[in-house]
Amino acid sequence: MSAPSPSSAAPASTAGVDAPASAPLVAAAPDATAAVGGPASDSGGTSSAVAPEGGAGAPAPTAAELLDFVRRTAQDTALVSSLPLDPEGRTWLRLDGPGGSEAWLISWPPGTGTGWHDHAESTGAFTVAAGALREHSLAARLPTDGWKTLELSEGVDRTRLLATGQGRAFGRHHVHEVLNESGREHAVSVHAYYPPLPQIRRYSRTGAVLRLEQTERPEDWQ
Fold first, then answer.
1. At 7, which helix (H) or strand (E)?
2. What span, in angstroms and rounded, lies between the C-alpha atoms of 25 and 48?
3. How far, CA to CA in Å, does 213 sit from each of 116, 159, 185, 200?
4. Beta strands in 52-186 (DSSP E)
5. How far apart are CA 191 and CA 168, in angstroms?
6. Strands of 123-130's sheet, edge to edge?
7. 186: nearest Cα among 126, 143, 130, 135
8. For residues 203 and 1, what is the distance between their CA atoms, to the nearest angstrom?
9. Nearest of 169, 176, 177 to residue 125 by alpha carbon
10. Which of 4, 151, 191, 202 counts the highest number of beta carbons within 10 A?
């Protein structure tokens, strides 16, 4: 996840659930003329088998419950160590999250990241199980459609460094990128989304200008 300017540092959190962002956004250009691919917005690489957890018919999980799930799963050392690590790219293991949510265990080789993206109507949470990850995010909600480029207002950038055991939750349409900035160490993290991701929008960014590059749907990563 990464920090363009201007950047306002926020402390890494192990407890907070972030509300949907509401900071201003300017200069949308309607209809004017991403990142490592993978099976979830924060994944990419080589897929592994599904590990069972949760069940059908459960109530919709809250963001706080997703955060609790990813924290607990990140403490499962046997599960975390079972994920193959590939120096050339991210690997992942699909998990069954609580209440029918979509969940992933993901490895991050040194220097890898997601690029800017969002998770559409899904809320989510992630926790670092090993190593550290940097998240850059926008404290602004983007229009859901009808645009290709946006000029971001000053003060919407946020960055945080999440160490092992630290995580966060986020609301719908949360825009971010996640990075393993280490030059030597893999990172591993656990992610959960509810409802299961209907789509992912991927963006490029130059300074304050954000451009929609691609929209992915489940058939593109499953």
1. strand 7-9
2. 39
3. 10, 22, 30, 11
4. 91-96, 102-108, 116-118, 123-130, 132-138, 149-152, 157-163, 167-170, 176-179
5. 10
6. 46-51, 91-96, 102-108, 187-194, 123-130, 167-170
7. 130
8. 13
9. 169
10. 191
Helix (H, G, I), strand (E, B) or coil at 149: strand
The answer to whether the beta carbons of residues 69 and 61 sit under 8 Å apart is yes
Is residue 5 within 8 Å of residue 164, measured between CB atoms? Answer: no
H or E element that contains 74: helix 63-74
C-alpha 66/C-alpha 202 separation (Å) is 23
- Among 80, 184, 79, which residue's Cα sits nearest to residue 129? 80
Enumerate residue ranges in the chain where pLDDT < 70: 1-58, 221-222
Q: Residues with Cβ < 8 Å from 25, sequence gap 6 or more?
A: 140, 141, 142, 143, 150, 152, 153, 156
Distances (CA, A) of 22 to 3, 142, 167, 171, 199: 19, 9, 21, 11, 21
pLDDT confidence of residue 45? 52
